[in-house]
Design a protein that fits this description.
6-stranded mixed beta sheet; 44% helix; 306 residues; 2 domains; 12 strands; Arc Repressor Mutant, subunit A; alpha+beta; 6-stranded antiparallel beta sheet; Jelly Rolls
Amino acid sequence: MNSYSIISLQDIDSLHHGTLYKDEIAVFSEVGGNELNIGSDEPLFVYAYSYMICLSGNARLCINDVEYEVNAGRMFLMQPLFLFQFTEVSNDYRCVFLAVTPHFADKIQDKELLHHIVNFIVAFSHPCVSITTSEHQTLKDCIYNIHDQIERKEHLYREQLIQNALIRFYLETDNIIDKMKNPTTCMQEPTTHKPGSGTKTKHSIFQQLMSLVYQHYRKEHEVKFYADRLNVTVQYAALVMKRNTGRSLVMLIRELLYCDARNMLRLTDMSVQQIAWELCFADLPSFSKFFKKMSGKSPVEYRAMK
């Protein structure tokens, strides 16, 4: 069985020093593709929203078993739990890499911005976005501005400065997508599907499991659903997750639900009852009990912190 790792920003930073803030947001400048592979020959999951812009050279990047050409005319947007690996990297390849944990993204309280963040979900099927030379420069400047704000360690409002810099980056990226008459026309199709991947060829059990979780975790909270879809036992599905990531499948589902719940409480006017319904909890008491176990606060108490 192949082994995959869900890595953190600290893991990347351990091999290529970046600029980090509280291990929640990081900018890695002038980094090569092999360094982003964290010295591994296997694909990796990064539990962060990740954005990559090529500065020089070229490479081939495999995302969820689909291979893309990497060059200065493209930007890559990857959601948490995307499986990625550089398969080819030129000697002169360098990129700037921005990673934002779901926890830090949750802190942005501007409700109007929710649309702009949610718009990135389109990247699930098309993580490669075509950009012009001027857009490339603008986005690069935005990421370097985030880097500069992270470096302002003595500033009393450092976190707010970082958030504002991140908001600018989100808006500039969303502008590139929104201004297209058809949003999918700026999304670049993959170069190839790797042998042994794609809809016509069977994925590994683990890859299928991760894909199913990301697609269905809001509606399906029980391990049995995913085991049944894969035609394996509950025990085997749990074992596959544990062996490959060192974490519980149940906990992964809970973490994703908790992240969404926090977003909805902070960024929307939905009632707690509506959020419970949106995340497919049996009733309000069940959701409230879940949320308090995860955060130490009730949903109402958490929302009052805004």
